[in-house]
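Our preliminary data section would be incomplete without showing what the modeling component actually yields. Below, a chain of 491 amino acids is followed by its predicted structure, encoded as tokens that our downstream tools consume directly.
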Amino acid sequence: SGSGPKSGGQVTVEEAGLNSTFDPALNFISTFTDGPEMEALYGPGLLYQNATTGAVEMGFAQSMTGSDGNKTWTMVLHGGLKFSDGTAFDAQSVVDNITRIANPATGSTQAKLAAAITAKAVSTTTVQFTLPSANSQFPSEISQYFALIPSPAAVQKEGTSFGSQPVGPGPFMMGKLTPSVSLALVKNPNFKLYAANEPYLDALTFEEVTDTSQTQANLSSSQAQAAAVTTGQQITSLTGIGMTAIVSHPVGGAWLDMNQGTAPFNDVRARQAVFLALDRTALANVWAPGNPVSTNYFPSSSPYFDASLNYEAQDKAKAQDLFNQLASEGKPVKFTVLWPTGTNSTTAQYVASALNAYKNVSVSTKIVLPAQYTVDLNQTQNYQMTAYGFYNSALFPTTSAIFGTGGALNYEKISDPKLDAAISAMLTSTDAAGYKAGVNQFVQEIAAQYDFIPAQQGDIGFIYNAKSVGGVQPVEFGMAALWGQVYSVNG
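Predicted structure:
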């Protein structure tokens, strides 16, 4: 019709996992299970990441400027913002959020990071952040950990039940939650201060559907109009029934993680041997059929992609030589692959059978329930090899947490001065060239130390029926959209 987006109507989105609590101190926009709903309740956040380039874009903030060598950052918010409860969303709300996350009683995994930030409301729309050291990537850190702002009045009123009675500034607000079934959200009338006529939809519903064929049936029958999926195979089957897909490839992807704190992987030769022994295309196809195999730390769409930094190819002869060498020194490569049930655990069996075909190698598997997996990986690091990965559109802020010595997500016990120096070079850089030099140094060192075994790059598809939905713009790594601008074609 050419008359632009229509107001009214509703959209139903199919999702594999549906959360039951929506507190931004505990939930994040950049995860598979939290992202889409958190974006609807709190989005677009102060800042958010572009799903293709990883660039930080402005949301409720209209500017973010570094000074004093990036030790001080000043954020200016749009004026006249409100939360869905009608209270003012101002600079003090941003400060209150960081103070709340820094409080150990809140239980946020970002408490330590928040505690290192000194935040001050300089005026109703200006926040000044003072950091302990230079950080050129602080806007990325804000976009991932501190961008979603809850209503301070609602936080005070609801206390520990805030997660089930969330109040944010996003395009939608809480309607009805039916645990493990659906989350019905309704239009937030106060969002229009952020963008004229948005949100266009009257209602947005998320439905939990764990079976791809059910997603396909619901989209075919127009019971649902959109879905976020995570494999190339799912994308192919859904575009095959006439759906439109916007596909994002995160930086990093899925990989096999090796615990360097224990034998055999405390010896770089054992890591190298296994890296060279595996056919990674076959590994990717078992793990996530249809997903592209990882050939580089960056997808080719990234501004940091450099083909000269592609991963080493499989080399069975060299792998066998290394296995023999280690065995002759009394350090045979013997380990167990830990894997959670329900996430293609056949991958663990594939790894074991492929490696057991070599001499002087002995690999077994340990398939455990997700709760036990979390204990073994996150809490006790009681594993030798497991499934891990990095799904994001940009390197930061997660890179330091996974690869930096003592990082919060460094379960593989990497402690490498060269990697720490590369991370530091990226964080302290003041120009694009300095940052890129740090990036290249980082990727080269990861490859030289065989810090993980790359598998598949990750295919994140935002799927929708273009005959009934318009205005779709996926953000972060592609699971969530800017819901305020989504509209029903038929109104």
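The chain is about 30% helix and 20% strand. The two ends are 12 Å apart (CA to CA). Preliminary results of this kind motivate Aim 1 of the renewal.
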